[in-house]
Write a structure and sequence with these properties.
Elements (H helix, E strand, L loop, with lengths): L6 E5 L7 H7 L8 E6 L1 H10 L5 E4 L10 E6 L16 H17 L4 E4 L4 H6 L7 H9 L5 E6 L2 E5 L6 H7 L2 H19 L5 E5 L14 H15 L3 E6 L1 H4 L2 H4 L4 E4 L2 H12 L4 E5 L5 E4 L16 H20 L3
Helix pairs in contact: 1-2, 7-8
Amino acid sequence: MGSRLPVIALTSGEPAGIGPELCAMLGAREFAARLVVIGDEALLAERARRAGVDARLRRYSRATLPTSGIIEVEHVPIARPAQAGQLDPANARYVLALLDRAIDGCLSGEFDAMVTAPVHKGIINDAGIAFTGHTEYLAARTGAADVVMLLVGGGLRVALATTHLALAEVAAAIQRPRLTETLRTLERGLREQFGIARPRILVAGLNPHSGEGGYLGREEIEVIEPVVRELRSAGLELEGPLPADTLFLRERLERADCVLAMYHDQGLPVLKYASFGKGVNVTLGLPIVRTSVDHGTALELAGTGRADCGSLEEAIRLALAIAGVRQRRAPA
């Protein structure tokens, strides 16, 4: 980034949800960065009015200097006018076009990081597009072989060994090669994006009581323990597998930098209890910096002005911090 102001691409997300108005609210916030909101300009203006936000919008141009209090918009036309709270599959490709513009800009060096407002996975699938989430989409678009979903907030960092899977599919997805790569990617991400010289990671078991010596499941014995042992011998600081019901005790967390949960609802309820509305989702393992909010589209709040942009604001600040760490670590 050098001495120039870093540029953050902010995708406005599902047009029927709260994303557009959250983006409009950020005009009143101060960041040490140039924010570029990607979305339909008329939609952003309409949602700002409905939410009672005095937002001043201007078309983004790389040649134009940023102005305090002005929201720069990279205009991407919406397919069909969106109604607050009413999902429309006709706009699914619009949502993905927002992501593609931010990804391409990050890969080319135009943007230093991307921050994403929430999307609605169901309506994208209803449009006939296979989509399991931001994390998987970003990995495919950037050619990243191994990515890890990490949530940050409330003094915690919680990563996931599996992401958006049905619970019935989780055990089969936890295999030695994949878990090994997840832990390596997590450890590397904590070093390279958070500046932690020697990350200490707590690894959760999958089953109650970490399998109770095999009586409640053998994944700990056959998969998790061998991976932890092998990576410890390679120099990683790992502890586990630990029973999830006692893993989040204060004395354990105080000696760790991150927790690796085996599935989505094993680790995230604890983090969201500690930080909801201020948590941030980070994708590790990408060639670009990406953060996101910790909540969904909140269709019932769209257009009401009652949505809170706290998580989006925190996501921008963390993206800036990570981009700064990466810049400092880059070879001269």
